[in-house]
Design a protein that fits this description.
By secondary structure, the chain is mainly beta. It has 2 domains: 1-52; 63-73 and 136-371, Porin (Beta Barrel), CATH 2.40.160.10. Helices cover 15% and strands 49% of the residues.
């Protein structure tokens, strides 16, 4: 009997020892597992933090141009990606990367372009600054040119040839909100570089661009009334030859626009002009003749019912307006947009273009545009 009790006691003691050792090992394993789980959680949290505030967007458009008297063409005109990053409540990054005409490279029709890449920092509640490469604050399309936001397959010729959309430079820009709906932008930046006053070809796109002379831009914009935007821009360039000529060619751009949207009715109107010094003609290049004055205007009424909108546009422009060279263009466009969704639009239009009063071209355009 005593032997049995002693044996039972020894067995219980041994079992307790084994259980204690087992519990200790289990606790150690649990502690180790907890550390691993905490490490995984920290890693996940770190990655979430690193990717928080990142945004992705973009737009694209494909065009079919049926021009009477010339070859017809289909073109995936633009494929664009936006990338943004919120670093904190006051500092953010934005970039825009574009592929034009589907193919880029030697002998290909397109280009890969970095159109924007800037840091924006809020100085206070009403003032912010952009630093880097940004779109010029001028006109209606240069900063907002997603294809679902405007009528017509192609961008209008005035903002293309006079302003010239799309136009970006490198520099710094201060934005001040003076009152609700009233803002002013002031920028110092790189400028155009053109030997004959050709505005559109003067864009160097901040690609190893000459920077011997700076340019300055100021814009005021009023949006306090719902559906209404009024804006005006003044730009000054000290030398559009960037120091490469025997004389400096200074240039001044003046632009004013109005846009109004009420229910289905819309109206856009814009005027833009360049004044260049006489030295542009002294370079002896054909396109420089009459280039001291370059100007254009357009007016565009539209009406939208549900997903369908129709427009008419009258435009006139001349890049050599200071000479009688037959370079005065007028164009009338009429067409429709059909929105498959608010940011996806099918487009169709007809245009009739005159040059110095004589018929120059007619044609039809079909397009599809989207943004996200």
């Amino acid at each position: 009997m005593k032997r049995s009790m002693l044996a039972a006691a020894i067995a219980m003691a041994a079992s307790s020892t084994v259980m204690a050792e087992t519990n200790a090992e289990l606790k150690a394993e649990i502690a180790d597992l907890r550390e691993q789980l905490n490490a995984v959680a920290d890693m996940v949290e770190s990655k979430e933090s690193a990717h928080s505030g990142v945004s992705l967007g973009g737009y694209g458009e494909i065009h079919l141009n049926l021009n009477n008297g010339t070859d017809n063409e289909i073109d995936y005109h633009r494929f664009v990606l936006f990338l943004g990053k919120e670093f904190n409540d006051t500092t953010r990054f934005f970039a825009e990367l574009e592929l034009e005409h589907s193919l880029a490279g030697d002998g290909k029709p397109g280009e890969v372009e970095l159109e924007q890449a800037f840091i924006e920092h809020d100085l206070n509640a009403n003032n912010s600054v952009k630093m880097g490469m940004f779109l010029m604050p001028v006109g209606l399309l240069n900063e907002t040119h997603e294809p679902d936001t405007f009528y017509g397959v192609e961008r209008n010729n005035v903002e293309k040839n006079i302003i010239p959309t799309t136009w970006w430079e490198g520099g710094v820009m201060l934005t001040s909100r003076l009152a609700p709906g009233l803002a002013v932008d002031v920028a110092m930046h790189s400028g155009l570089s053109t030997s004959d006053g050709t505005i559109r070809k003067g864009r160097k796109k901040v690609a190893e661009a000459p920077a011997n002379k700076a340019a300055y831009t100021a814009r005021i914009r009023y949006t306090a009334i719902a559906g209404l935007e009024l804006g005006a821009t003044l730009q000054r360039q000290d030398d559009m030859l960037q120091g490469a000529g025997t004389e400096e060619v200074n240039g001044t751009l003046v632009e004013a626009h109005a846009a109004y949207q009420k229910d289905g009715f819309g109206l856009r109107a814009l005027y833009a002009s360049w004044s260049l010094s006489d030295a542009v003609e002294d370079q002896g290049l054909a396109k420089g003749e009459g280039a001291t004055s370059q100007k254009g205007l357009y007016i565009e009424p539209s009406y939208r019912v549900g997903d369908v909108g129709a427009f008419y546009r009258y435009s006139r422009w001349d890049n050599q307006a200071d000479a009688d060279l037959g370079t005065d263009y007028t164009q009338q466009d009429v067409g429709v947009n059909y929105w498959l969704s608010e940011t996806v639009a099918l487009k169709a239009d007809y245009f009739r273009q005159n040059k110095d009063g004589d018929l120059n071209a007619t044609g039809y355009n079909l397009g599809l545009g989207y943004s996200f």
